[in-house]
UniProtKB/TrEMBL annotation:
Gene3D superfamilies: dinb family like domain. It comes from Bdellovibrio bacteriovorus str. Tiberius. Pfam families: DUF1993. Coiled coil: none annotated. This is DUF1993 domain-containing protein.
Length: 168
């Protein structure tokens, strides 16, 4: 179940994030300004800029899945400064997620997940997904969306959600 709650929606969300960035690049090209203006934008002075929001969204997806499965996530040194570099990071993260199968999550619900900043505390795999990984990726992608929208990029809810798996 944790596979279904993480890998497919994380892939979709990261693809949607990449498409949002494409719309930002289009606005920059149309309005004749450097796209790095968007990449360095933030909503508040004490908030991370768009670039860091993208990095953290990718880290949340890849490291969350890696912690649950024991697979090694790709390393990204957080040095991206350009749109192509950020899009490559998204693609690398998606490729990693696509390499993971539902079988890799066997027993992950009860696994103890910890991080240094949690000071020796842990969450079970299930609690980690429900209370940290899912909210965290959506927080950072929503913030990235909001930074772009605040700067005039024409994006809406459909861009954020992406295609829905309608049945007929």
């Amino acid at each position: 179940m944790l596979y279904e709650m993480t890998v497919p929606p994380f892939i979709k969300t990261l693809k949607n994030l990449s498409a949002l960035l494409d719309k930002g690049a289009h606005l920059a090209e149309t309005k004749k300004f450097d796209v790095e203006v968007l990449l360095n934008s933030r909503l508040a002075p004490d908030q991370f800029p768009l670039t860091r929001q993208i990095q953290i969204a990718c880290d949340t997806a890849k490291l969350g899945v890696a912690r649950l499965t024991g697979k090694e996530a790709p390393s990204h040194p957080d040095t991206e400064k350009t749109l192509p570099e950020l899009k490559a990071r998204i693609e690398s993260t998606i490729a990693f997620l696509e390499s993971v199968s539902a079988n890799d999550f066997a027993g992950s619900e009860k696994k103890h997940i910890s991080q240094p900043r949690w000071e020796g505390k842990y969450l079970t795999g299930e609690d980690y997904v429900l209370h940290h990984a899912i909210p965290n990726i959506y927080f950072h992608v929503t913030t990235a969306y909001s930074i772009l929208r605040h700067n005039g990029v024409e994006v809406g809810k459909k861009d954020f959600l992406g295609a829905l798996p309608f049945k007929s």
